[in-house]
Design brief:
Layout: E1 4-6, H1 10-20, H2 26-44, E2 50-56, E3 61-67, E4 71-77, H3 81-90, E5 95-96, E6 98-103, E7 110-116, E8 125-129, E9 132-133, H4 137-148, E10 153-161, H5 163-172, E11 177-183, E12 186-187, E13 193-194, H6 200-205
Parallel strand pairs: 1-11, 4-5, 4-6, 4-8, 8-10, 9-10, 10-11
Antiparallel strand pairs: 2-3, 6-7, 12-13
Length: 208
């Protein structure tokens, strides 16, 4: 699929196996997810441009590099919060916005209830964080909101992605690259990813 990147690092595969396991308790789930998010951050930003700078070492001056663009993290509440910690460890200078969306269980369509993001998104690399790209409605809607606020360089980051959700996001936002750790088989009748890992929010916060 166009603009789809699969993160297949061995350590990511190892951690994803732990997250899938129904026996994994929420406190382990949270810890592993944070570690996995940090690993994902490296892959998601591998091709970002750098700017050359001069730095003074204890011995002499030398050339160095800094990020050319600022990073903005935008988790989709509430499950997206589980990815923020790992990304912030890699990008401590990142600004963080929040988008509140939930899926209507009958229509499977997204319903928004909160939107707060930093200013000046036009020059930033915006990473939308959501563990599950299922029907794609919430992800596509979140990207639409961000574009209306001026975001131009958006990447969507998920643990798992269903083909149905990928098609929806790509149809509405062909310019957005989707990063995921696994292309799943599909969705069940309730819109849950198969084989999946259950409800990511419930497993993160222990509310299942």
């Amino acid at each position: 699929m166009k603009n789809l990147r699969i993160i297949d690092h061995p350590l990511v595969k190892r951690d994803l196996t732990i997250l899938r396991d129904v026996q994994t308790p929420s406190y382990v789930f949270r810890s592993v997810l944070r570690r996995m998010a940090a690993l994902m951050a490296y892959e998601v930003t591998r091709d970002l441009p750098l700017k050359n700078v001069m730095v003074k070492t204890p011995l002499e001056n030398t050339n160095g590099s800094i990020m050319e663009h600022s990073i903005v993290l935008v988790p989709i509440l509430r499950a997206g919060l589980g990815l923020v910690g790992g990304f912030v460890e890699v990008f401590p200078e990142a600004r963080v916005g929040h988008i509140g969306l939930y899926r209507d269980e009958k229509t499977l369509r997204p319903v928004d209830y909160y939107f707060k993001v930093p200013r000046d998104l036009k020059r930033a690399v915006v990473l939308v964080l959501d563990p599950m790209l299922a029907t794609g409605g919430s992800g596509a809607e979140a990207i639409t909101f961000l574009k209306k606020k001026g975001a131009r360089n958006i990447r969507f980051v998920s643990l798992l992605a269903a083909p149905e959700g990928i098609k929806v996001v790509q149809k509405r936002h062909a310019d957005v690259v989707i990063y995921t750790c696994s292309l799943e088989r599909g969705l069940n009748s309730k819109g849950y990813i198969l084989p999946g890992l259950g409800d990511a929010g419930d497993r993160i916060f222990g509310t299942d």
